Amino acid sequence: MTITIIGIGLIGGSMALSLKEKGLVQRVIGVDNNAAHAHQAITLGLVDECATLEKAIDESDIILLATPIGAAEKLLPIILDRVTKQVVFDVGSTKHSICTSIAHHPNRKRFVATHPMWGTENSGPAAAIKNAFIKKATVICSKEESDVDAVALIEKIYGLLQMHILYMDAASHDMHVAYVSHISHITSFALANTVLEKEREEDTIFELASGGFESTVRLAKSNADMWVPIFMQNRDNVLDVLNEHIAQLRKFKACLEKENYTFLQELIENANGIRRILKN
Amino acid sequence: MTITIIGIGLIGGSMALSLKEKGLVQRVIGVDNNAAHAHQAITLGLVDECATLEKAIDESDIILLATPIGAAEKLLPIILDRVTKQVVFDVGSTKHSICTSIAHHPNRKRFVATHPMWGTENSGPAAAIKNAFIKKATVICSKEESDVDAVALIEKIYGLLQMHILYMDAASHDMHVAYVSHISHITSFALANTVLEKEREEDTIFELASGGFESTVRLAKSNADMWVPIFMQNRDNVLDVLNEHIAQLRKFKACLEKENYTFLQELIENANGIRRILKN
Asked: Do residue A164 and residue A182 come from a single domain?
């Protein structure tokens, strides 16, 4: 089979590498409006060739939409206008907006909305790696709105990538990822800004920064072009979680101000409950 | 030489393992008011024997004070009352309070105040590991207040542990660690509480949680008995950084509320500046 990867970055590039290695696809066509990325994707062996969107769609069996989510939402109706029997899937971090935008498209059923829960703080073709995705979760949203054969092919792809598939509706997905992904990015961005604002002696931070600091601010390296549209599309859920998070931080602040160390102890012991949820 | 480790947990236990392996000490005496931990430390081979504080001091060349910082501050004058030529050092996460507390002790100069910048979210003897500390930073505070031979021995110890030594006064140390360590723990505790409070579907979080979430909440597993005294002792610095952090989070909140995505993009791009500071 032939796959087109639209947006050859961390996710699209990593997926291309795996699907070719697994033998599911023999030919990978790249589509990227960034000429440097397109060139780099060929050099790195992520794709066999690059083509225009139209040519790529016509010559493919599978179309993976892996651009930032704002661009994906603009491209999806254009792609669906052109597909006949091809299967189209996306990998965006929000699902409600894109699903709603093509809800009444005549070719809606050729589209499968997905979100593989893997990424790093790096982006672009050079960030793509082999053997990504293994043992991570992926979400397929509202599968009943897609053709059975389209869902089956996407399930086969995620099976080959050794991912664990969860099924949920788009609105539930967006609420859950606000908790387990989007808020982590905001706290990390804000923590980086706190340190950069208050601590001018950067060399000292550099020297002192231990593993704990690095792990909490690592996500602050993440790309703004990817994250602004995510926060924009998932604004209500993110605001809801962010308000709760600020309220939780205020409890720590109040404990310190009032020197209420008994309650501080309780807050920390409650937080230790996260051990129930974390795998490692 | 013989070393006494008072408080045989993550740090004390890991240090005992390394110093014996490096051949600096031939005998390790453990002192721990938790009988189960004392027993476990012997079983795990972290210490050769356990003893009372008095006996341990009398038979040692080096005394490592590795309890939570509240206990350390209570024990240090008692230890200094008894030492003659021994060298005493601590590894606590705050330095100003403990240094002030023994500033006028006649044996002050036998004490070296230190803080190795390594740890994990785990605690107790079972958490101790070999080859900890390598290539991490450690701080020696106010070295001019310690005897030259005492500082030289501690420098030798950290050299054997392959740590990079920084020198600063206790007050500066406490301010810097509020930025690079203490605030990370508070944000992580608060983030864990946010998710546990708002997201009742724990199975869903468990399934969806990706590496990014795990890395930002990992520190929330940290032990309350260790951290409450740290926040207590470093209250002013921690409150200062916490206030700034809440102010930074409010900027993200305001961007979302006002749908000011241009400023949101700027906030994220500014946060990306943390790449300058992080080693990896």
From this structure: no
